[in-house]
Amino acid sequence: MLDRSIGEFSRFVIIALGCTILGFTSDNWPLALIAALSCYLFSVLWQQHRFNRWLTNGRRGPAPTAFGIWGEIYDDFYRMQRRHRREKQKLHAMLRRVQDSTSALREGIIALEDGDNLAWWNPAAGELLGLQASDSGQSLVNFVRDPVFVDYMHSENGNSREPLTLPAPGNEACMLQLEVTRYGQDEALVIVRDITRLHNLEQMRRDFVANVSHELRTPLTVIAGYLETLQSSDMAPPAWKRPLTQMEEQAARMTSLVNDLLLLARLETSERKNGDMAVAVTELIERVAQEARSFSGGRHHIEVQCDTNTSISGDPGELHSAFANLVLNAVKYTPEKGEIHLRWRQDNQGGHFSVEDNGIGIDLIHIPRLTERFYRVDPGRSRDSGGTGLGLAIVKHVLLRHNAEMGVESTPGQGSLFTLHFPVGKLTSKATPAVNSEAAGL
């Protein structure tokens, strides 16, 4: 650039000197100098006019030819134009490859922009949601009108939520899974999958478990009744006492397993309802704590602390089951003389129920799978404690039905902290004084 400026300045000096010399020969050098400056200025303005006209016409064709610094500027812009054209062609080719590859996918892909409006979608998405070319620019919720999906799209933490499952628009027999990923400035990517087959298989599994569990209740009741009769009478020989006791314990364990399976099946298959009953948290925690103390038999120190007296809007039985499963698990896996703390606190994020113990703890590799049914960190120890392996799976489904979440923190050998997080919308505050109770010696 410096060389170009020097060259142009030299050109201007040469013109000025030439016109000045010519002016001296004609005894009118000022007029000659003004004429030189005017010619140079006219030349610059004319080149600028040509350049502006070329830019205004969209830089069609090659840049105008010129000499001096303007010729070099034209050449630079022409090279930039060619480079831009090549890059544009590469981008178009890349876009075509992306569109061709996404068109071959069985999953639907939808690109949204400007307030969840349709910008682009592949053929699979168009087939699954019934989209047509004329629908471009319209909001996606105009085609998927399910209220659950509308709430899902408008949620602030869309990226952190689980994929949503709902029937396809206009085809109740087809089940779709939709997952929204937001990025950039008000843009989003929606993945649509047809999970009809998996949904039907899962429904068959649930129905099978529910039916088998229901059918097992009657024979188990009969077996337990006869075992109790034999235990309380003198009909059985003394040598049968130990086998009968073990049979009675296993029958009770089987009955507990069947009851948990039935409860889990009901939670999975019945419709989710927000619940219209206000469940007092203080009373619920105190009741669960009393059950835990009875189950502990004085072997543990159980403390309850409620910062606020709040009600949760939901199903009383389901909430009791979730709270009780966490507390009873703490009793099962905390050694004798261990401490268990039940706490309820409330903040701007909602209400939080925590169960903390100083028991055996859980290794980090097991935490992601704790809510899987029948998953056991230590199978032998779990069977000895009488657990069914379904407690945390039940807690998970209860929380899903109450728009709540569970957090787990644990260190092997030091204890665990389970926390249930309930959103603000599920809580109703009361004016009753908070409770801080302790079972001394327990």
TrEMBL record:
TM ranges: 9-25
The reactions it catalyses are: ATP + protein L-histidine = ADP + protein N-phospho-L-histidine
Every copy of the Histidine kinase domain together lies at: 211-426
Q: Which lineage ranks, top first, belong to the organism behind this chain?
A: Bacteria, Pseudomonadati, Pseudomonadota, Gammaproteobacteria, Cellvibrionales
EC number(s) on file: 2.7.13.3
Task: State its location(s).
Answer: Cell membrane
Which SMART domains did the record assign? HATPase_c (SM00387), HisKA (SM00388)
Catalytic class of the enzyme: transferase
InterPro entries with a match to the protein in the record: BphY/WalK/GraS-like (IPR050351), HATPase_C_sf (IPR036890), HATPase_dom (IPR003594), His_kinase_dom (IPR005467), HisK_dim/P_dom (IPR003661), HisK_dim/P_sf (IPR036097), PhoR_N (IPR021766), Sig_transdc_His_kin-like_C (IPR004358)
A Gene Ontology cellular component where this protein is annotated is:
plasma membrane
Q: Does the keyword Transcription regulation apply?
A: no
| GO biological process terms on file | cellular response to phosphate starvation
Q: What is this protein called?
A: histidine kinase
Q: Which GO terms describe its molecular function?
A: ATP binding; phosphoprotein phosphatase activity; phosphorelay sensor kinase activity
Presence of the UniProt keyword Magnesium in the record: no
- Keywords in alphabetical order, please: ATP-binding, Cell membrane, Kinase, Membrane, Nucleotide-binding, Phosphoprotein, Transferase, Transmembrane, Transmembrane helix, Transport, Two-component regulatory system
